[in-house]
Amino acid sequence: MKHKLKNIKQDNTIRITYDYDIFVSVKGNRIINEAHVKKLIKSMKESYIPVPIIANQKRGGSYQLIDGQHRLAAARFLNLPVYFIVKQGLGLKDIQRLNANTKNWSLDDFMNGYCELGYEEYLRYKKFKDKWGFGHSETWALLSNTCSASHGANEGFRDGSFKVKNYEQAIYNAQVISDLQRYYEGYKRTNFVMAMLHLLSNEKYSHKRFLNKIDYQSTKLVDCSRTEDYLLLLQKIYNFKTTKSSKLRFVDF
């Protein structure tokens, strides 16, 4: 089937420049990954394919960079021409959407971006994560006061709607779990953290009792592949040499 050339419309003209300084970053955009820039430099040295970057024209003759900051950095290093398209009305949300579709943005990128924009909940999230050293799944669960490391929660985290449920409780739980480092070096493992949060959500659970029990059973703490397996292990430790009436059940045997 032949297509008529007259039906082709020109929307965005590709422009070319060596003036790298006319491009400015959008506030909240991810931090440049130097390793990725080096990889692009190596590739461009071998063969420079002019893939256009996307920019949003602003006042004063500068362009906000929407997509292609790593390509721009590599082109600057090699003194190569920059090919770009100007599309009005784009911003941070468009950058995130564009990169999320290509799986380029990590949770760190979203976290840092929202922190730079001054999102209070993300500033608290980052402060908490940096202090306690847990991964994103564990940090999200702790600050959301849940026992589940739901991957579906990433969507809420990515779109800027994340909310801390109970900061004081999260700090307490993080401290309790961190106290177990002396008994188990895998205390930051996702499934272990989820199992401990399950225990801590039980109103009858006594952490003092658990520490007394684990003092002479620490060798029983081993890596498990599932949260349920950790729960079973913790249940056995917690109920060791305990009367039937005082036993707690966290998971069915």
Tell me about this structure.
The chain is α/β, with parallel strands linked by helices. 45% of the residues lie in helices and 8% in strands. Strand 3 (53-57) and strand 4 (63-67) form a beta hairpin. Helix 4 (107-116) packs across helix 5 (120-132). It starts with 14 loop residues before the first strand and ends in a 15-residue tail after the last helix.
The run of helices and strands is: EEHEEHEHHHHHHHHH
Proportion in helices: 40-55%
Average pLDDT over all residues: 82
Distance N to C terminus: 67 Å
Describe how the helices and strands are arranged.
Elements: E1 15-17, E2 23-25, H1 34-46, E3 53-57, E4 63-67, H2 69-78, E5 82-86, H3 92-101, H4 107-116, H5 120-132, H6 136-144, H7 153-158, H8 167-178, H9 190-200, H10 207-214, H11 227-238
Parallel strand pairs: 2-4, 3-5
Antiparallel strand pairs: 1-5, 3-4
In short:
The chain has 253 residues and is an alpha/beta fold.
Notable characteristics:
single chain, 253 residues, alpha/beta, 8% strand
